[in-house]
Design a protein that fits this description.
It contains 11 helices and no strands. By secondary structure, the protein is mostly helical. It has one domain. Helix 1 runs antiparallel to helix 2, helix 1 packs parallel to helix 9 and helix 4 packs parallel to helix 8.
Length: 304
């Protein structure tokens, strides 16, 4: 067992359990940049790790009743076959060098999209919170809709699963960071804990299908996966237990910067340009966020 891989798995597992995102988006670039694993092997090992890790976090949310199983079923209908197809697309590319290039580019693009998706999630969540409070102010407590009992939209939900499954099968990114954004946009009445719970459970069959494809056709490394599991399983359980008590806002901001930096590097952006982009985000991001809060009728700074 490699201690460094186990500690990395612990950190990533905790973030997955806490926020419902960051698994492939953190695990795969961590393996590529810090442990020198080639991109295809990193994707394969990450997906197999996720297939074993995610049920533990999902079980905690299932026990707490924060899972909408109807949504899980419609998402899985599209994502499970699509994830396997994503692996077959990689296999059809042929030579390993070509596969690594495609995986690196696709992974970089997915990470950049995921970083902006995290910001979009935060904005949608803030806007939704304002709207719910405004609607709830004039409603009696009796008769309010149970947030788990949303009106399911089958076609867009299945299509979301198809697109998400394809991305996950090719890059291991998206089972949390991208899918949870789609869930927020499609079902704005779902509460944060229910979004995380539903997303974690829908990711179980999705990641399992992608992992099976990579076991058959990818570049799976047993030693890497075993070390990651030693840390990631307790990490995801601890994160899921803490998800109802911790907002995870600071973690999501840091995660967005990490994803953006990783994606830019995988896309071949020079280090100097990457640093300038990150500094600009750190400096201008809070200003833009304060403006967004004002547009939603909130004070620029959150009151403590």
């Amino acid at each position: 067992m490699e201690v460094g891989l186990a500690l990395g798995g612990l950190a990533v597992g905790f973030i997955v359990g806490l926020t419902g995102m960051g698994g492939g988006a953190l695990m795969t670039p961590m393996l590529v940049f810090f442990f020198g694993v080639n991109p295809l092997a990193a994707v394969s090992s990450d997906l197999v790790t996720g297939a074993i890790m995610k049920p533990f976090g999902g079980a905690v949310h299932a026990h707490r009743g924060t899972v909408n199983y109807v949504l899980v079923g419609w998402l899985a209908l599209g994502s499970v076959p699509s994830a396997f197809v994503g692996v077959l697309v990689l296999r059809a590319l042929g030579e390993s060098a070509a596969i690594d290039d495609v995986v690196t580019t696709a992974l970089g693009a997915a990470l950049v999209v995921a970083s902006f998706a995290l910001i979009a999630k935060a904005y949608v969540s803030m806007s939704r919170g304002v709207r719910v409070r405004a609607e709830g102010a004039g409603e009696p407590a009796v008769g309010r809709q149970d947030p788990l009992q949303v009106v399911v939209r089958p076609l867009p939900t299945v299509l979301t699963g198809v697109l998400g499954g394809l991305v996950v099968g090719m890059t291991s990114v998206g089972s949390g960071s991208l899918m949870i954004i789609a869930l927020m946009l499609l079902y704005p009445r779902l509460q944060a804990s229910q979004l995380v719970g539903t997303d974690l459970v829908q990711a179980v069959p999705l990641v399992a299908a992608a992992a099976l494809g990579h076991l058959l056709f990818g570049d799976f490394r047993l030693g890497v996966t075993a070390s990651l599991l030693v840390g990631s399983i307790p990490g995801v359980i601890l994160g899921a237990l803490a998800s109802s008590r911790a907002p995870g806002g600071l973690i999501r901001r840091a995660l967005a910067l990490v994803l953006l930096a990783s994606g830019l590097k995988l896309l071949g952006v020079p280090t100097s340009v990457t640093v300038v982009v990150l500094v600009a985000c750190v400096v201008l991001g809070p200003v833009a966020w304060m403006g967004a809060r004002r547009r939603n009728g909130l004070p620029a700074m959150r009151r403590r």
